[in-house]
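Re: that backbone. C-alpha cells:
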C-alpha cells in the first residue's frame, strides 16, 4: 500500500483549493485538468473552517460536490485532514491550545499553524475532524490517498509542551540522574532535583543549554509524529486500504527528523522550492527524499511554477518547469505535483503561482504544464529500475540541530550547508549520490562523504569503520565525530569517535577570520588550492599528509597578531588533508573548508552542466547549461534540452 489507489503510473497534479472559488470555476478546473493530463489532486488542506464552521457542526456538501466532480473527470483525490490551520473559533474556545513562543508570547489566529501540538484540545479536535472525514468519504470512489496535516514543523513552548517534554524525557532517560548527566547539569547550577523543574528552552539570560535545546527538537519531532500517528490510526480504521502520507518540508528550521518519520508513512512525499541554484538544489532534495524513502517509492508533492528567492518571486525560465520535474523523476519521484492548481486571487499566498496562473489557460505556464502532463506517461518504463548511485553523502538531522547551538567555536558552522557542498561537487562532477543517514547500509558505495558530522553515535561510527575495512573510501571533513549524541565532546583529541579510523589526532581548532585563507601544498610543494573559514592542528597517527598548510593569506586589515590569525599562521607546514589506509579501504580527512573547485579536484571530478542519471538500461539527461552538451553515446542536447533513452540505443 505505497501508492495512491487507482493510479498505476506516475502522479500528476497539485493542491486543489476549490473553496477559494465560485462553483462555476470548478467546472472549468476539471476541464483544464483533463487537458493537462492531471490524475491526482490534494484537496482540503486548509479547509477546516469550511468543513466545521462552528464547533461540532459540519458542512460536507460542498466537498461532496467537489469529489463527485473530480471523480466524473477521472481525477483522483489525495484528501487532506485540515489540521494545519484550525478555524478562528478554535483559538477562542481553547486559548490554551494556541502557540506560545520561546519568549512567552501567545500567538493569535490570523495565519496558519497556530496551535500547540501537545494541547489536549488540539489533539482531540484533530482526531475528530480526521474521523469525520474518514467516515464521510471511506466509500468515495475518488479517494486515492490521505494527506495528513501539512508540512509538520511548528513547535510551542507552553505549559502543555513543558509537561509533554518532561514525559518524553522520562521515557528517554528514566531517571533525573541520567538526565542531569546527559545535559551536563553540573554546569552553571543546572542540576535538576525534581522533574517539575525541567523546562522547554524558553527565553533565558545568556547561552542556553545545548543538550536541552537538542532534546527539545527531538521531542518536538516525536510529539508531532504522535499527532500524525493518531490521525493515521483513525483513517486506517475506516479505510484500511487507503495509503496515508504527509508532505515533508525541507529546511533546517524544521524540528522534524524526516528519516525517522519516513518509516511511518505509507508513501514518502516531499515539498520542494529551490531558490538560488534550482537544478543543483533539486538534485539534492530529490536525493535526500530518496534516502528518506530508503528504496520505497516517493513523490514530489509540491513544487512551484515560480522560483521564490526570499526577496522575489521569479518567473521560471522557458522549459525550466519540465527540466526540474524531470530531475525529480530521474532521481526517483514517481510523479510531479505542484502548489497549487489555480493561483489564488486573494489570501496570503496570492502571488505564489499556480498551474493555472492569474493569466488563465492562455499562458506560457499552462502550456508548459500541459506539455509536461503529456510527457509523463512516456517516462513510466524508465522509472521502473532503481536509481544508480555510486556515492553517498551522510546527513543527519540531529547533527545539524546540534550545530545550531550558540557558543560553538565559530559562527557559521553548518552541517546541512557542508553536506550540500559535498553533494553539489559530486552532482556537478556527474556522480549520482544518495543522501543517507550515518546508520544506512553503505556497502553499495565506493565513496562516502562525511561532511561536518559533529555528533555521531558509537553504532554509526562502527558503520563507517565497516565501510572502510571492506574496501570503501571515506572522505571526512572538519568538525566530524567530535561530540556524542548528548552533544558532549569526546575528549582525548578530535575528531573523537573517528581518530583511529582516520589515523590522526587533532589537538586544536583554529577558526579563521572571514576572508583569510591558508594555502595548501602537496608533498612536492605543488599548489593544491586554499583552505578558508576553519583550520586545525592535526597530528598524524598512522595517516599520511597529501596536503599541508602553506603560506597564510590574511584578509586585508588582518595582521599577524589579530585574534584567530596568529594561530592560523602557526599551522604552516602541518597536515591539512590526511589519508589513512584502514582495512582494505582508505579514510581521508579534510581539516579545512575547501572551495568547490578544490574539493572537486581532490575527488578527481570534472564539472559539467549536463545532469546524467542512470536507471538500469535507461539514462536521463538534462542540459541545464547555456551551451550544447553531448550525452555520452547519445544525442547532442541544445541548451535546456533533455533526453530519456535506453543507454545502448543507436
Ligand atoms: C508549501 C505549503 C503550501 C504553500 C506553499 C507556498 O510549502 O505546503 O501550503 O504554503 O508552500 O508556496
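Recovered sequence:
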Amino acid at each position: 500500500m505505497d501508492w495512491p489507489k487507482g493510479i498505476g503510473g506516475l502522479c500528476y497534479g497539485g493542491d486543489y483549493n476549490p473553496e477559494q472559488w465560485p462553483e462555476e470555476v470548478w467546472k472549468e478546473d476539471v476541464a483544464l485538468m483533463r487537458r493537462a493530463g492531471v490524475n491526482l489532486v490534494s484537496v482540503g488542506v486548509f479547509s477546516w473552517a469550511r468543513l466545521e464552521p462552528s464547533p461540532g457542526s459540519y458542512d460536507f456538501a460542498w466537498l461532496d460536490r467537489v469529489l463527485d466532480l473530480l471523480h466524473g473527470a477521472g481525477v483522483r483525490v489525495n484528501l487532506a485532514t485540515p489540521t494545519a490551520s484550525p478555524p478562528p473559533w478554535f483559538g477562542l474556545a481553547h486559548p490554551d491550545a494556541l502557540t506560545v513562543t520561546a519568549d512567552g508570547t501567545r500567538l493569535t489566529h490570523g495565519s496558519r499553524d497556530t496551535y500547540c501540538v501537545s494541547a489536549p484540545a488540539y489533539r482531540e479536535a484533530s482526531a475528530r475532524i480526521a474521523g469525520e472525514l474518514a467516515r464521510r468519504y471511506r466509500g468515495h470512489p475518488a479517494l486515492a490517498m490521505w494527506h495528513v496535516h501539512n508540512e509538520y514543523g511548528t513547535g510551542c513552548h507552553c505549559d502543555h509542551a513543558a509537561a509533554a517534554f518532561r514525559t518524553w524525557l522520562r521515557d528517554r532517560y528514566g531517571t533525573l540522574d541520567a538526565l542531569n548527566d546527559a545535559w551536563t547539569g553540573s554546569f552553571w547550577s543546572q542540576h535538576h532535583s525534581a522533574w517539575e523543574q525541567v523546562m522547554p528552552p524558553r527565553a533565558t539570560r545568556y547561552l542556553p543549554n545545548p543538550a536541552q535545546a537538542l532534546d527539545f527538537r527531538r521531542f518536538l519531532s516525536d510529539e508531532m509524529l504522535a499527532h500524525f500517528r493518531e490521525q493515521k490510526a483513525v483513517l486506517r480504521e475506516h479505510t484500511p486500504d487507503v495509503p496515508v502520507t504527509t508532505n515533508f518540508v525541507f529546511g533546517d528550521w524544521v524540528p522534524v527528523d524526516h528519516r525517522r518519520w519516513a518509516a511511518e508513512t505509507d508513501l514518502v512525499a516531499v515539498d520542494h522550492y529551490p531558490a538560488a541554484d534550482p537544478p543543483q538544489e533539486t538534485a539534492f532534495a530529490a536525493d535526500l527524499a530518496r534516502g528518506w524513502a530508503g528504496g520505497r517509492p516517493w513523490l514530489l508533492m509540491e513544487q512551484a511554477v515560480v522560483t521564490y528567492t526570499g526577496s522575489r518571486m521569479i518567473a521560471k525560465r522557458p522549459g525550466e518547469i519540465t527540466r526540474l520535474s524531470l530531475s525529480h523523476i530521474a532521481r526517483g519521484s514517481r510523479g510531479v505535483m505542484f502548489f497549487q492548481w489555480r493561483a489564488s486571487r486573494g489570501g496570503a499566498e496570492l502571488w505564489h503561482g499556480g498551474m493555472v496562473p492569474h493569466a488563465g489557460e492562455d499562458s506560457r505556464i499552462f502550456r508548459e504544464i500541459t506539455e509536461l502532463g503529456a510527457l509523463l506517461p512516456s517516462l513510466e518504463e524508465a522509472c521502473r529500475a532503481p536509481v544508480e548511485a555510486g556515492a553517498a553523502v551522510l546527513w543527519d538531522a540531529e547533527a545539524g540541530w546540534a550545530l545550531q547551538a550558540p557558543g560553538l567555536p565559530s559562527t557559521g558552522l553548518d552541517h546541512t550547508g557542508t553536506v550540500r557542498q559535498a553533494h553539489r561537487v559530486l552532482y556537478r562532477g556527474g556522480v549520482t549520490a544518495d543522501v543517507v543517514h550515518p546508520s544506512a547500509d553503505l556497502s553499495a558505495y565506493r565513496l562516502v562523504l562525511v561532511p561536518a558530522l559533529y555528533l555521531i553515535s558509537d553504532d554509526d561510527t562502527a558503520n563507517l569503520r565497516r565501510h572502510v575495512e571492506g574496501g570503501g573510501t571515506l572522505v571526512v571533513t572538519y568538525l566530524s565525530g567530535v561530540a556524542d549524541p548528548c552533544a558532549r565532546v569526546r575528549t582525548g583529541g578530535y575528531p573523537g569517535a573517528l581518530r583511529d579510523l582516520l589515523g590522526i589526532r587533532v589537538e586544536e581548532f583554529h577558526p579563521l577570520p572571514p576572508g583569510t585563507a591558508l594555502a595548501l601544498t602537496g608533498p612536492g610543494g605543488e599548489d593544491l588550492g586554499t583552505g578558508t573559514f576553519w583550520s586545525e592542528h592535526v597530528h598524524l597517527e598512522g595517516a599520511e599528509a597529501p596536503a599541508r598548510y602553506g603560506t597564510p593569506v590574511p584578509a586585508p586589515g588582518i595582521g599577524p597578531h589579530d585574534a584567530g590569525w596568529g594561530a592560523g599562521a602557526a599551522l604552516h607546514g602541518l597536515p591539512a588533508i590526511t589519508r589513512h589506509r584502514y582495512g582494505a579501504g582508505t579514510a581521508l580527512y579534510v581539516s579545512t573548508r575547501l572551495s568547490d573547485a578544490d574539493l572537486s579536484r581532490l575527488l578527481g571530478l570534472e564539472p559539467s552542466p549536463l545532469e546524467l542519471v542512470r536507471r538500469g538500461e535507461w539514462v536521463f539527461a538534462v542540459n541545464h547549461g547555456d551551451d550544447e552538451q553531448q550525452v555520452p553515446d547519445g544525442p547532442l542536447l541544445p541548451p535546456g534540452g533533455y533526453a530519456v533513452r535506453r543507454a545502448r540505443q543507436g
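The chain has a mean pLDDT of 96. The pocket of beta-D-galactopyranose is lined by residues 150-151, 249, 271, 302, 304, 339, 349, 352 (CB under 6 Å).
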